[in-house]
Q: What sequence folds into this?
């Protein structure tokens, strides 16, 4: 028998050699599918479809709005039929359907934006894309020539090191990060300049908001709300605040050369160990640390420690200090103490007059964890962290 080619062999086996057409989906279809996959994942994790409600997480509310829109569009239902393993598109909404204005109020969006929310492309499947979307949906800045020199100067300052960038975080966990007129940020890969801040307005969720004019380095601008810019910066992994010239770092050098004279020092974070001979303290001396912040000299702060119940009525050793720059001392101290609350050293000591005192600044924590806390404050990654004594690690707090 003559030698058979590969095609002959496949034909003998009943393999169809006709090339199959590969359907190419449009960008809109890809977005619809990606958005629905998020809803399916939510259903798998929570055992129910996403619902509306002010008490719901913002992402669940977004998914609920998106699902309502998908149910209402026959072409979307047809596109997603094979992916609808939980029959989500066939379910009737749990609640009375909301009109456009109510849906916008659910999401904290002004009613005038109703024409945008009806299009699925404005409800992105990946929250981290929102920062780039803010820039992408901006309009041309007609007077950009007046702003261009500002952007050029900021870029020159960044190149020269006279300005720095810092992660945009919620002010060390104590409040929402502030945005003021004249400040520069990096969002969606562009430098953004807050050209103006409008009058305060009441947002649907009760918070105070304001309309901004934001000009971008690519020659566009937008009039988004202040809270919208905050959210975009929070969600953008590359979102940064650009410092004023020579604003200096959050922390100074831990040693070595002195800080530059123009840097404004606002205090010192100090770590102390007790010399107490109390059996418990002596047995755990390497772990029991007092952590505090002072606006003066540490040596002055600890003078007379042996007579002070807050210092465990014993002299102390200074094991570490960190110079602070441009930070609210009391808020930072409260944040550090909150993170270490689970390992606070709970002891009651009588003061010189016999009155019981419970020191609040002593913690059973390794010095290495304190170093990590300082590093995380410096790079903006401390927000949302807590100390887990079981693993002796800083971890993200459970939501």
A:
């Amino acid at each position: 028998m003559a030698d058979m080619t590969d095609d002959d062999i496949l034909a003998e086996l009943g393999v169809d050699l006709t090339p199959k057409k590969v359907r190419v989906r449009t960008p809109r279809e890809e977005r619809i599918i990606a958005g629905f996959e998020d809803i399916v994942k939510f259903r798998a994790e929570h055992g129910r479809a996403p619902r509306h409600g002010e008490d719901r997480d913002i992402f669940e509310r977004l998914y609920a709005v998106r699902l309502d829109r998908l149910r209402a569009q026959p072409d979307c239902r047809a596109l997603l039929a094979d992916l609808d393993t939980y029959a989500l598109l066939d379910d009737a909404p749990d609640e009375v359907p909301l009109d456009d204005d109510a849906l916008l109020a659910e999401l904290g969006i002004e009613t005038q934006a109703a024409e945008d929310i009806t299009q699925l492309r404005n409800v992105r499947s990946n929250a981290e894309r929102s920062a780039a979307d803010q820039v992408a949906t901006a309009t041309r800045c007609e007077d950009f020539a007046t702003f261009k020199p500002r952007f050029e100067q900021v870029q020159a300052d960044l190149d020269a090191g006279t300005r720095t960038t810092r992660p945009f975080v919620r002010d060390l966990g104590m409040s929402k990060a502030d945005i003021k007129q004249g400040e520069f940020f990096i969002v969606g890969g562009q430098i953004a300049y807050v050209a103006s801040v409008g009058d305060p307005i009441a947002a649907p969720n009760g918070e105070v908001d304001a309309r901004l004019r934001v000009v971008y380095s690519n020659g566009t601008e937008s009039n988004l709300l202040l809270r919208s810019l905050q959210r975009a910066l929070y969600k953008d992994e590359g979102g940064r605040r650009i410092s004023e010239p020579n604003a200096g770092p959050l922390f100074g050098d831990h040693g070595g050369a002195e800080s530059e004279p123009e840097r404004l020092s606002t205090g010192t974070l100090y770590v102390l160990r007790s010399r107490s001979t109390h059996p418990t303290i002596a047995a755990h001396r390497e772990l029991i640390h007092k952590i505090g912040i002072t606006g003066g000299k540490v040596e002055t702060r600890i003078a007379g420690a042996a007579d002070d119940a807050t210092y465990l009525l014993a002299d102390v050793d200074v094991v570490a200090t960190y110079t602070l720059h441009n930070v609210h001392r009391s808020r930072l101290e409260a944040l550090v103490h909150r993170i270490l609350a689970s390992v606070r050293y709970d002891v009651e000591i009588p003061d010189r007059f016999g009155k019981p005192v419970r020191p609040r600044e002593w913690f059973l924590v390794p010095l290495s964890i304190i170093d990590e806390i300082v590093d995380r404050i410096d790079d903006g990654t401390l927000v949302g962290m807590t100390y887990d004594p079981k693993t002796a690690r800083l971890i993200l707090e459970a939501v």
